[in-house]
Amino acid sequence: MPLIQPSMRSRRLLALARMCLSLSLFGCGGATITPDASTSDAGTTDVAIDGDRPIGDVTYYSDVRPILTQHCLSCHVAGAIAPFPLDTYSAARTEAGRIAEATRSRTMPPYLADASGACRTFRDARWLSEHEIGVLEAWRDQATPEGDATIPAPVIPSLPQLTGTISTLDTGVEYTPNAAMADDYRCFVVQAPIATGTYFVTGSEARPGNPRIAHHLIVYAPRTDEAAQAARALDAAEDGPGYTCFGGSGVNALPAALWAPGAGATLYPTHTGIQLTGGRPLIVQIHYNTLAGPGMSDRTQIDLSTVTTGVTPAYWVPIADFALHVAPHLASVSAGATERVGDLTNLPLSLRVFGTAPHMHLLGRTVHVDMDHAAGGTECLVDVPRWNFNWQMAYFYETPLPITPDDRLTITCSYDTTSRDGDVVWGEGTQDEMCIDFLYLSL
Prior knowledge:
- It is a single chain.
- The chain is of the alpha+beta class.
- The chain folds into 3 domains: 31-157, no CATH class; 159-310, Copper type II, ascorbate-dependent monooxygenase, N-terminal domain (Jelly Rolls, Sandwich); 314-442, Jelly Rolls, CATH 2.60.120.
- 15% of the residues lie in helices and 30% in strands.
- It has helices at residues 8-17, 60-71, 89-94, 96-104, 130-141, 225-237, 341-345; strands spanning 166-170, 183-190, 198-207, 214-222, 243-244, 253-259, 266-267, 272-277, 282-289, 301-307, 312-320, 325-326, 333-340, 351-359, 364-372, 378-384, 395-403, 408-415, 424-425, 436-442.
- The strands form 4 sheets. Strands 1, 3, 7, 8, 10, 11, 14, 17 and 20 form a 9-stranded mixed sheet that branches. Strands 5-2-9-4-6 form a 5-stranded antiparallel sheet.
- Strand 15 (364-372) and strand 16 (378-384) form a beta hairpin.
- Helix 2 packs across helix 5 (130-141) and helix 4 runs antiparallel to helix 5 (130-141).
- The radius of gyration is 22 Å and the shape is globular.
């Protein structure tokens, strides 16, 4: 029996939600740097210090290059998804103003959750310290001095790699995204890597055929044979390979694997894995950014590390406001829900929370999740102060948190509905919204 069997109420809600989750795990600068004037501190060099570390004279080779190497160069090099490279002095100097503004606004690197420690700290966080942001601002304000070019270049950090038994999913086609849309979400139904029995996905890594247009992807696992048939029907009903799937897979399915540029392999927490049914097809949802290369095509493959024994099953379990309903013409309006953990899992067991994956659509602005312990006290599970639909992520904690059936989870989401003339409600469509956070739970 699976570790977590959702209650009947939760199953109905999950079927309604269709487990819409567009994740982009640990992405790096794959979108054009866009300054946010409301949060930029242009012209200041003394605002960013860590403790007693004031910022003095800054040069590219001694101060700036190490920061860019650590946080940016897995995407900002020639041929990768980022629109311009940052791997030389001349390239970085050209973009110095936008680098300073985008990092101050935390538009780049695109890491949505607050990883400062005010809420939580996360494994593999692409998070600049205040001191690092201040260094980049100071370099801009000091006219981008070059410094000593003989300083040895820092090594780009090694990315995680899969180990063990590896199977490959293949979309099987060269797909050319719809150039009429800046963002084309396409779902491909692919054969399962294991033909029979039960197996567990413990990690994944995508190999996009064209990294200039493949923005991120999610592998969904249909929860039933009926859901698998529904996915095949959607595929057959639409011209061309695959089918359009903006919000999620469009059927009753759970996320099993996820990828974004610059992340390397995604490794689930040690000794845990997503339990799947052999022989049941999987659904690969790929987000294509057509602005990066109109008319280009892509054939993506995804490697999965799988095992049949030796791991504890883990599941993405949602806390959500399925009754979401907010009014139009409001610059800020909130929605949310509170649920007892035992009502979500239908288990009298204490578990552990290993990670979290919040999700909203285009009107979303912030999302926050708290856990109120039955024994007293409140812990923040995730805080996203600047939502961006195109850079959604899963966040795995450095240390898992205990959670009991009587603890309560509260999710709060805020939206800007000034562009809408009618009420905004829950749904998968572009004009609909969501307020949901998936928790990665296991024993």
